[in-house]
Amino acid sequence: MTRHFLVDTDLSPEEQAEVLDLALQLKRNPYLRQPFAGEGAARKTVAVIFDKTSTRTRVSFATGIAEMGGSPLVINAGESQLGHKESIADTTNVLERMVSSIVWRTFAQSGLEEMAANSRVPVINALSDDYHPCQLLADLLTVKEHKGELAGLTLAYFGDGANNLANSYLLAGVTAGMHVRIAAPAGFQPADSVLQAAKIRAEETDASILVTDDVQLAAAGADVLATDTWVSMGQEDEKSSREQIFQPYSLDAAVLAQAAPDAIVLHCLPAYRGYEIAAEVIDGPQSVVWDEAENRLHAQKALMAWLMDRS
Ligand code: CP
Ligand code: NVA
Fold first, then answer.
1. Which of 113, 118, 168, 218 could bond to 156 as cystine, CB 3.0-4.6 Å?
2. Exposed, middle or buried, 55 (CB in 10 Å: 0-12/13-18/19+)?
3. Atom of ligand 2 at shortest distance to CA of 234?
4. pTM score > 0.90 for this model?
């Protein structure tokens, strides 16, 4: 059966560790795996579809597919019939006959689920309203490089606790055996369905979950601090109210001072300095955000190679 990657828990703890190990190998040896190369000059195509804007995801998938012997076909919103003139199922039935994988950044998670249900080639979530699982593979790879073992580390996330990054930090973090703390105001904490899935996974891995509105409690002694924009793509109309609500959750120097002395700071980017993160934190010595951005490439190559091995 074809494997897809729509949500962080689509990989078991063992499988997540395999993908991260392969990512480390590919970082050292970029051309080690060639799942999209064919005989002679033949190259397989991978469709990379964007219903929302992107810099890192676009460049890292296009580069990674090319480095693994394939041709990336990047399709931007409004350039195809998908979503307005043609159903997801009909588009998928066409794509799967021509391409080796489909990477899709979209709004509704249900759209990705519908595509995967109709596809014999792997479908990869390149960000939806609910999850950003590829980002979390890169984040975990970055933590592994800087800290070694993931299991047992404490990761604290601050800000919008109900967005795609918060959900993925929870699910991917506990899959790796980490203690995940989410500091977010009431009304912006993770949905019960996400918490339930995270709790089930945490029991398998001896991980733990703390959801709180107390920034100090979340930050105390943490090994990894993370945040994300307060205004995700599609929420632009709520910008001013969100900036007020989340202001006490800004990842600034005072918050960083509560963490472990050797804590590292993650941000998936794009970042809004002075809002969810202070300039002195993201541009300071404990920030690893450029490693994190580069690791999108290595982690996604590993994911694509791993999925192609199983399809
Ligand atoms: N972090 C991330 O997904 O960046 P882009 O939106 O630029 O792809
Ligand atoms: N939560 C952000 C992540 C951007 C990479 C958004 O969805 O816009």
1. 218
2. exposed
3. 8
4. yes
